[in-house]
Amino acid sequence: MDVAKDTEKISNLLKPRDINCWEKKTGFLSPWARPILIDNKASRRFREKQECLEAEDKACYFNAVEEQLISMKSLEYRFWMAEYAFMSRLLDASQLQFYVPAFIQLAHLMPRKLIFHRRQGVRKFLKNRLVDPNPFVQVQTNKFVRSSVLLYPARLLFEMAELFVDLIRRSENQSFTTNRLRVLMSVRAHQLLSDEEICGRFKKRSEYEKELQFLQSQCQYYKIRVSEIYRISAETLEQYWAGL
Predict the structure, then answer these.
(1) What local confidence, expressed as pLDDT, does residue 51 receive?
(2) DSSP E strands: which ranges in 87-213?
(3) Of 15, 92, 136, 239, whose CB neighbour count within 10 A is largest?
(4) Cα 93 vs. chain centroid, distance in angstroms?
């Protein structure tokens, strides 16, 4: 197999389409609004690369938040800056562009005690639904508990926690074979999506483009060939996602 030639074919297959439907959309895609989670060396390298590329923009957002919160009492200031640092690692720069104003408003309005109480509620809710979590599930659950009360209003909090349970159950097996199949199915799914479905799946073009870049890095990691992708029929794809 000519690896270089197949890599080029994968790259062409995952080129973003020329779609212009995002102008009227607002907000950003939640980091938990995904069909599946994939955690491996390639995904960690991808995140590290993105952090380097976005470091300057993220520093500007950090400074903007710091400037707005600096007048708080010392304990409040340290708490909220630590929370922002955590959210900044979870969200990319384009998402932070929308999130920062909401975070600043939240920091001025929401008591820390309420944050802790809501997190306790979410953690108890998840503990009753995720029995004997493996290390991967535990890490993701901790991230969700901490981030959820900073992302979602109270009226949606447990609804989103239930969706997280579904997500984590689909993703808890992080074996090489299982993740490779997930990548194959995800690439094929993107190939078969209509323009309207793509616009429904992503809130911004940058989110769509980044997802394609992520899948391309996964294809390289798993040495996936274009022929493997084309062998997956629409029927097989539908049965796979229905079975998750």
Answers:
(1) 96
(2) none
(3) 92
(4) 13
- How many angstroms separate the CA atoms of 133 and 119, rounded? 18
CA distances from 39 to 30, 135, 185 (A): 17, 12, 16
Q: At what angle do helices 3-13 and 176-192 cross, to 10 degrees?
A: 50
What SS3 state is found at 202?
Answer: coil
Query: In this structure, what are the phi and psi dihedrals at residue 224, rounded to the nearest 5 degrees?
Result: -80, 135
pLDDT of 181 reads 97
Q: Give the up-direction half-sphere exposure of residue 29: CA atoms within 13 A in the CB hemisphere.
A: 21
Rounded CA separation 103/101 (Å): 5
Residue 5 in tokens: 């030639």
Please tell me whether residue 78 adopts helix, strand or coil conformation.
helix
Amino acid type, 20: N
Q: Residue 101 is encoded by which pair of tokens?
A: 């104003």
Is residue 214 within 8 Å of 39, Cβ to Cβ?
no
Residue 147, token pair as written in the block = 């981030």
185's tokens? 């199915």
DSSP string, 215-231: HHHHHHHTT--HHHHHT
Q: Which of 172, 168, 179 is nearest to 43 (CA)?
A: 179
Q: What is the mean pLDDT of each run of 10 residues along the chain (244 residues)?
A: 72 90 81 94 96 97 97 97 97 94 96 97 96 94 98 96 97 97 96 91 90 96 94 93 86
Residue 35 DSSP class: S
